[in-house]
Design brief:
The chain has 176 residues and is α+β, with helices and mostly antiparallel strands. It is built from five helices and seven strands; from the N terminus they run αβααβββαβαββ.
């Protein structure tokens, strides 16, 4: 099998692992902060915003939320990030789930498996509230991840995110 075919092959779900977010994971945030990766999420953040995000990810472990993870392959390679945090949707408290997959691992099932693992973590360590994810309508890959992780689409609505109006699909998954 050629290298191009090997790169596009789906990964064995058992090879996708989550590791607690650490200072060593800053390169994942930096790689994901490109104009191409953030095109559907209001564009890249500046250095100060990225630093604040990283600090929130670290502090969340002490506070209980957010619980952010580095997504790793079986050889320890960084594939992206996934996590969950407290949010509100439809007038109730929920946990919001979010993820990013680095370009070289996209389209291989990494995000779907990472999302399933994060859902399991939220169920095990959360307080029983439902989970929600809200990818942009035009992000077909992330909407597919929601379906693969057991979420049901319940609404599409325009929302402002970092000062940009976006049309988002809202997906919900019961915690039990």
């Amino acid at each position: 099998m050629g290298s191009r075919a090997a790169l596009s092959a789906r990964l064995d779900p058992a090879s996708v692992r989550l590791r607690r977010w650490t200072d060593a994971d800053t390169p994942i945030l930096e790689a994901a902060n490109s104009p191409e990766m953030m095109a559907l999420l209001a564009g890249p953040e500046d250095d100060w915003q990225l630093h604040r995000r990283h600090e929130r990810y670290l502090r969340g472990w002490d506070a209980g939320t957010p619980r952010m993870f580095s997504v790793r392959g079986s050889r320890g390679e960084a594939m992206g990030s996934v996590g969950w945090w407290e949010s509100r949707f439809d007038g109730r408290d929920v946990y919001e789930l979010g993820w990013v997959t680095l370009p070289e691992f996209q389209g291989r099932g990494v995000a779907s498996q990472a999302a399933r693992l994060a859902v399991a973590d939220a169920i095990a360590h959360g307080d029983g509230r439902d989970l929600m994810a809200c990818p942009p309508v035009e992000n077909k890959a992330s909407n597919g991840v929601c379906a693969a992780a057991g979420f049901e689409m319940v609404a599409s609505q325009e929302t402002e995110f970092r000062g940009v109006a976006m049309l988002l699909n809202y997906w919900v998954r019961p915690a039990h």
